[in-house]
Amino acid sequence: MSEEVKVFGAWGSPFSRRVELALRLKGVQYEYIEEDIFNNKSPLLLKYNPVHKKVPVLLHNGKPIAESLVILEYIEETWKSNPILPEDPYDKAMARFWAKFLDDKCLPALWKAGWSPENEREKAVEEACECLKTLEGALNGKRFFGGATVGLVDIAANFIAHWLGIIQEATGHELLSAEKFPHLFKWTDEFVSCSIVKESLPPRDKLLAFFKDRIAGAMDAPTEASK
Amino acid sequence: MGEENKVILHGMWASPFSKRVELALKFKGIPFEYVEENLKNKRPELLQLNPVHKEIPVLVHNGKPIAESLVILEYIDETWMNSPRLLPQDPYKRARVRFWTSFVQQQLIETLLTVFETDGETQEKGVRDMLEKLQVLEEGIKEFFPDGNPCIDSNNIGLLDLVFSSVFSHYEIQEEVLGIKIINIEKIPLVCSWLTALNQLTLVKESIPPHDKLAAIFKFVREDALKSSSA
């Protein structure tokens, strides 16, 4: 049976990279369409995500799905190889809890801390570190949040493994250090070292240049659209 | 009730987040113990059950706690597989339900809070945003009610119904306290008939707190928010 799988994404967006990673982990072939999200969103994107007009959008046999966590659940339910969620309902609930924590609390706090003006920095950093401390606890010495293999939470935490370090370099402010968060720090290494993950990350120098370019201006929090 | 399969819901009577879990358990006929939590003075037990957010609702099943209402609802649906099934079986239909649930949760609730907790121009903008978003929802739910007739009963009620009902079933009390029309039948007829259908269900009717009690807490929340923003 031939299947048509397309991903509308943006090269620097952690949210659209999540979707690509999940598809690659499951060995699903897809066509990637790069969207110019800052200047010129395509008519197709606006057609397939009229509500939010954002990337990522997954198109499967002509049917569009938006919102990265919704897409990840769809991918899990549609392609059964290499599961990214546990079978047990309680363990599954825990994974969903942490994925939500990342999107609702953690990522916005990290973003804010990375770009805060000097007078707001201290409080923003405190909140961001609280989130990182919570994640350190959630990892609980495991290799991945998903246990022995990469799972939903690891995929959702991709920003921390790759984007955060680059922002730290661009701004000169450190949030995630090996001293303060040893397990989480080690996890970032384990995560980006996986060959499939490595292939699905945007190039470091391109991302660094992008952040350095925009360092002067104020930036919005990372939502599905902005990166 | 034996220890096996024991279900405890830690909630708060006026919270839409805890209300939707209560409704799910009742619709599915799952026996549970309800514990009313004091959010002004949180008990150590609650903080232990939900150390990350320190919030309700928390569902405790067989001694294991789960927090975050939408996570709890999916857990309930996967653990008690009797009807009503809160999510459809087909992955694409599930994605559509999750998408619109996320829209209500993230977009509508935030805007409703703005309308409740502000006044003047900020509130006016909130009211306009609210209508705009409800009109988006009006378009969106057409895929769930293709014949324009929301026919909901205790066997087919779903995740999106519970989440929407938990926020808007008592819209008349909200409108009374605010002095503002939120649910306007001319502008959002399908949303209105959906809400009407939901509010006709016995379990939904029974779950809405007494008028005076709810009106009092809404007034208090509004006055408190306005006071602290002008302080």
State the shape of chain B.
Answer: globular
Helical percent range of chain B? Answer: 55-70%
- Would you tell me the structural class of the helices and strands of chain A? alpha+beta
Largest interface: A-B, 22 and 23 residues
Separation of the first and last Cα atoms of chain B: 50 Å
Indicate the low-confidence ranges of chain B by residue numbers: none
- Helical stretch count of chain B? 10
Q: What would the average pLDDT of chain B be, to the nearest integer?
A: 96
Strands of the widest sheet of chain A, in order across it, are 2-1-3-4
**Total DSSP helices of chain A:** 10
User: CA-to-CA gap between the ends of chain A?
Assistant: 34 Å
Q: What's the story with the biggest beta sheet of chain B?
A: 4 strands, mixed
Provide the gyration radius of chain B in Å.
18 Å
Radius of gyration of chain A: 17 Å
| Broad structural category of chain B | alpha+beta
Secondary structure: number of strands of chain B: 4
Write up what this structure looks like.
The complex is a heterodimer of chains A (227) and B (231). Helix content of chain A is 55%, strand content 7%. Chain A has ten helices and four strands; from the N terminus they run E-H-E-H-E-E-H-H-H-H-H-H-H-H. In chain A, helix 4 packs antiparallel against helix 5, helix 5 crosses helix 8 and helix 7 packs across helix 10 (204-214). With 231 residues, chain B is of the alpha+beta class. In chain B, helix 1 (16-27) links the parallel strand 1 (7-11) and strand 2. In chain B, helix 1 packs across helix 6. The interface between A and B is medium-sized, with 22 and 23 residues.
